[in-house]
Design goal:
Rossmann fold; 8 strands; 242 residues; 13 helices; alpha/beta; 4-stranded parallel β-sheet
Amino acid sequence: MRVALYVTCLVDLLRPEVGFAALRLLEGQGCTVLVPPGQTCCGQPAWSAGDRPLAAALAQKAVAELEGFDHIVLPSGSCADHIRNVYPELLAGDPAWAERARTVAGRTRELSDFLVNVLAVEAVPGRFAGTVTVHDSCKGRRGLGIKAQPRRLLAKVAGLELREMAEAEECCGFGGAFAVDFPAISTAIVDRKCQAIAASGADAVVGGDLGCLLNIEGRLRRRGDEATRVLHIAEMLAGEGG
């Protein structure tokens, strides 16, 4: 099984260890994993900003790099949602690209969904002696139905106890450029998320989108919480949670 790992911009630039953790998880399940060397942005920021020509150009670039693989896996519900659900719409009117976009979209999965629903993973190498709560990112939950998958995987981590926070599906306030354009509203939203994490009493919060996790971790630290760990699910499953 040839798998393209699309690492995403945030992972590549800010926390590459998430990409390496995803790579180890996939290879540990027997996948032949390649990281297309020319991959850049999936085009989601351009699409969200209303720059359709740039979004289409980036979509065509990604499609050309990703077609030919059996599966495309992303450690991001947000970017996976964009490729899976937006590319077919964005390129639907272009006869040269429409079918190619639909094919790539149909082979694209978020990491936890791929591990559960394609590979049917029975065991993971991770161990964590503590309690964990899960943040459900907006795009992953609403665009891809990512909810049960990370919890099923976390249940396989030795020593881990899951503690659900209140309103786990509520937005963290990041929303890409939203956090920049509306900082006061974004801060109010992430404060609610931080309060829910604290109330859960968990030692760590885990999620599947690095944008959410960076936003949550930044606010936790500014609120004086230096203890709660903030980890991508790939890191926890791969055994980097500690």
